[in-house]
Amino acid sequence: MRLSVPSGQESVDLATVDLFDPGLYASGDPHPIWTAMRERSPVHRQTMPDGRSFWSVTTYDEVNEVLRDHTRFTSQRGTLLSILGGTDPAGGKMMAASDPPVHTAMREPLMKVLSHRSLKGRMPEIRRLARRMLAPLADGGELDLAAAGAGFPMAFTGALMGLPEPDWPRLTRLTTMAIAADDPSFREGSSRGTLVAAHHELFDYFARHVRAVTADDRDDLVGFLLRMEVSGRPLELDEIVYNCYSLLLGANVTTPHAIAGTVLAFAENPGEYRRLTADPALVPSAVEEGLRWSSPANHFLRHAVHDTVLGGTPIAEGEALVAWLGSANRDERIFEDPFRFDVGRTPNRHVAFGFGPHYCVGAPLARIALRVFFEEVVAGVAEFRIAGPVEHLASNFVAGIKRLPVTADLRESGAGDLADALSTGGPLTFPAS
Ligand code: HEM
Asked: Per-residue pLDDT for 431 more than 70?
């Protein structure tokens, strides 16, 4: 999706806008629509030609209200627009599609194993991956940061989950097919067929993987899920499989787009990038601003548990609500000058990782990876230049970039490191097909 700055002159007819359409995010721009909705209709109903409908929630406060209150807005019926009108078979079995207390019972042990404290030992490995990914820039070459970034979370999450390395490229592609089934670079047959095929292959993969391992000899996330107990019983096979899927999807389809969206913002705001290279202590706040700016997880879905009222609008039991995180992260009531990319933004209470009970359980890992990655970027790169057309993903769920060709001027001190990295192996690029 384009990360534009609305001029305020756009005329938006809220009666005809279509926020479901994946094409809007590939070639259009939802920001003028969201800006108009925040102003004129913050809880806005869209009915599609086939009769299905959902409420779009666009302001920061109302997005937080929906995500926070599972007693009014359940995750159990599914959390992505792709499920609209259906029921999620993973409801009550996968942490992300459960409500407390089942959700809490699964989440608490996982939070410990995915905490910053448990994961910080992985920093050197993540730094090596980041260097390998950036290596093609060292000799003045062009790098498609979107293609290279696709393999980055797969490598550290694959290692964390104990998944065999030869499987990583296929898993990377399958996770993108699962969230961008309409995108021509990832569609295999019809959109519906792509989604079903991706789910089928991923669930089958994890079921075979889980059956092949035993809890005792596994010091990885899958072993942890095998040993985990919820309400005094071990998880069933399908519960383990759904949660493996959710963990891998959570990491794979978001992190690369936070990287690409942030680098694109650096290239488009060279003054902000110079400010960062002059003061690398700003890396953590630049990472948070990159997350706010790119909002890779664009929406999450909930269903009303009973009749309720949101922002003065009555919502009927069973109706679907979509919390648009990309919109909440540009809410002018919360963020000063929200369409300005500011590497030192303080405060920055963005909702890129969500809010409330489902707040991203992978946030500590994502933050470690993004900070380490951008430390390497700042040490090595003086300036980024966009070297060709930027292409956006056709997905209403992930605000993604699928092609971002860049070249870079290197910093004197960084050139050596990147050149060294070149000798550690080939570039970390998983092709789109
Ligand atoms: C930049 C990177 C990431 C972003 C922007 C992101 C975003 C989010 C958001 C917005 C949610 C809330 C979902 C909801 O409210 O229904 C979420 C939940 C989740 N994320 Fe992430 N995520 C990222 C990285 C990761 C990583 C690295 C992992 C895996 C280790 C992960 C795994 C999950 C899981 C399993 C959930 C469900 C948590 C729950 O239901 O309690 N995510 N993520």
From this structure: no
